[in-house]
Amino acid sequence: MSEAPGDAPKEDLSQCVLYEIVEENICKITLNRPHRRNAIMTPVMNEMLYDYLGKAQDDDDVKVVVLAGNGPDFCAGEDTTHVPAEALGLKKGERLGQSRRMRGMRKTYETLQDGFLWSDKVVIGACHGAVMGVGFSFALGCDLLIASTDARFARRQARMGFAAFDAQMPIAMLKLGMNRAMEVLMTGRTVTPEELKDWGVANSVVPPDELEAEAMRYARAIAALSTDGLMLGKRAVHQFLHGVGMAGFQNFASIGHPLFTNLVWRENEFNFLRERNVDGNKAAWKRLNKIFSDLGFD
Asked: Average pLDDT of 236-245?
């Protein structure tokens, strides 16, 4: 039987994000849900990641954070066996108050914003395998990005109906370029690590068995710098991001999800949430992705 929303068995999420001081001045935060390809279970994993990123920022001995994923994938995106609104209390046949949606989405985006973009510590993403959905957001939010040759990046949720609206739209446009960002966000197509290297987004692309060592090479270089100088540098980056309006988008992003609930689907449009409820999560994604793969957007 296809897995339907709400059918997933309860699991122990207490170790789904790990925190470790791996060397002096270097912290490693690891997504640890490999049986689900490190898909983010909202809100538990968002909150754990937020707390650990905050812990690293509060530790004056930590200069740099390496973000990695256990298993064959960095992060396959959000766990779509339930949508964020369901984690906030949405039940079948009922409507969730928009205030709860907006508050819940604001808290979710705070993980991405405060933990990455507004972090006082340098964050290095070490990405391999699937880097999808929110995983791609994490990668774009990092100060430095190290990718393995088997990595594949995409924001598939555009195909669910979000189109170019994306919580990370401004940073995607800033880092990918406006037209490339629009293409990636609207089609949900896969971006290769070589493309990201050519676009100036990935700092280094290495074979999978060299990923950890390469991330640590960069981390050790950062750790060799002045603690005070690093934080001053990060605050300068923050000032630049404020100057280009990055902070202003956070409020709109928290409103976007409630607006999404008011979309009216035409008869010839693929309503993912409806199809998921009928056929299950995997079958709905397979049918939806086929529409785009048939057009050459894998």
From this structure: 92
